[in-house]
Design goal:
This protein is mainly alpha-helical. Helix content is 57%, strand content 0%. The protein contains 4 helices and no strands.
Length: 70
């Protein structure tokens, strides 16, 4: 589970539905806990490698402000 991803491997999000589900999953993790966030993301068919990276390696998350162009 401690797999790291180089920053160069991160691409711009291409699917707005997946992007929104990932963002909501992060909010679930913040509001409740990681297990709730995992279950939420799994229920929205987010690939396990994305769930793992986003929830367990927050330093690799895209910042919402950067995505919004701020």
């Amino acid at each position: 589970m401690n797999q790291t991803f180089p920053l160069s491997s991160l691409r711009e999000r291409g699917n707005p539905l997946i992007s929104a589900a990932v963002d909501r999953g992060i909010l679930v993790q913040t509001s409740f806990n990681t297990m709730c966030a995992i279950e939420y993301m799994k229920s929205h068919n987010i690939p396990s490698h994305i769930i793992e990276r986003v929830l367990l390696q927050p330093e690799l998350r895209r910042k919402l402000q950067e995505l919004a162009g701020f």
